[in-house]
């Protein structure tokens, strides 16, 4: 048996990109996955693929800006499978732009999704993990927080905030809980779909040349999840060899 087989794993942002790839890979390796995202048709499709391959999946519409939705996701895992072993906080949005454009609504959305969404997940899962005496938080952040560049100030700020919170959580967690931060570089996802058209075109060209497939990040997440209970993989960076 692998260290993944039989684990119950909830994943936000599971309808596409890294979240979808992670759900498919962990289910293939024997995990029972509980999928959350806003687009229910995507969730149903991912769950259908998993079940068609002989895996187990449940799903619920999850908007991570709503605390009740994170409680519902964790609650579904506990109701369906009796526990939750891992919460993968993967949902994110990157509405990058120059600060001079004052896109305050975009800044607020990134804070709500990228930061508050992670905190709501912690609020939902931490009591469950404490009661069980075990559990694992996996947070998808970004290399944007390691190398800050123009246009990404607020996005990088939200990701660095999650990195800081995750380290504090790790130190508070004791010897029964695990906390992992995974920092992907450029990945071939829908990340650019809501950006300014000029910025989107520039980034899309770069992604076509060098971006990683989402399953490369999924394998990094799987590596952290499969470790024995006493092993905490704290920080993983996954980026293309061609990325600066």
List keywords for this structure.
single chain, 244 residues, alpha/beta, seven-stranded parallel sheet, 7 helices, 7 strands, globular
Can you walk me through this structure?
With 244 residues, the protein is α/β, with parallel strands linked by helices. Helix content is 48%, strand content 16%. It contains 7 helices and 7 strands; from the N terminus they run E-H-E-H-E-H-E-H-E-H-E-H-H-E. The chain has a 7-stranded parallel sheet with strand order 3-2-1-4-5-6-7, sandwiched between helices. The N and C termini lie far apart (38 Å). The model has no long low-confidence stretch (mean pLDDT 92).
Question: Can you summarize this structure?
Answer:
The chain has 244 residues and is of the alpha/beta class.
Helical content (DSSP H or I, runs of 4+): 40-55%
- Which structural class fits the helix and strand makeup? alpha/beta
Strand content: 15-25%
Order of helices and strands: EHEHEHEHEHEHHE
Main sheet overview = 7 strands, parallel
Strand order of the largest sheet: 3-2-1-4-5-6-7
Mean pLDDT: 92
Unreliable stretches (pLDDT < 50, length at least 5) are none
Spell out the blueprint of helices and strands.
Layout: E1 8-12, H1 17-28, E2 32-37, H2 40-52, E3 56-61, H3 67-81, E4 86-89, H4 104-132, E5 135-140, H5 153-173, E6 177-184, H6 197-210, H7 214-225, E7 235-238
Helix pairs in contact: 1-7, 3-4, 4-5
